[in-house]
TrEMBL record:
Signal peptide stretch: none
Biased composition (Basic and acidic residues): 1-11
GO cellular component annotations of the record: plasma membrane
Transmembrane parts of this sequence: 42-62, 74-93
Membrane topology label: Multi-pass membrane protein
Descriptive protein name: RDD domain containing protein
Amino acid sequence: MAKQRFRDVKQGRIQAPAEKKKRKGTEESAHRPATLRERFKAFITDSFMILMPLMYLVFYLVFGGREGFAQHKLLGWILILVPYIFISALFIARSGRTPGMRAYELRVVLCHSGENPSFAVALLRQLLAVWDFFLFTWILQFFRKDHRTLHEILSGTCLIHDPVPPRSAH
């Protein structure tokens, strides 16, 4: 077999060796379940892009500073988490991705159909995701082949790796 030139592979004249080995029906490999590392990176990104601005607004505009927040912690966290859950649910219902999920090419889909969840399902998923802060739900994904967590099982959703399609230049 002749040596393949990179230029020919790059320009699509011949297939790369890795592409030749793929069998028909393996297109689904692009939609593999999200790993714990990918989930964590997306969560951290969402925390900085969505949660931190909400925390700033609640800390300084609603309570007038950290001291005011410290006196009303329960109300403060409710005022932070409720909008966060709604904003995340809106992103998921609209495109299947939050900004963090988009950055790491993850997408929430309905497991039975592969479509984006409705707002009600996305809201249920995000409400149940509060339980992810407890250890037993993170452990659950290590024992499942599809890496689904408790809130995904209960809401019927899956978090998959799905490359972001390029945006059209309109």
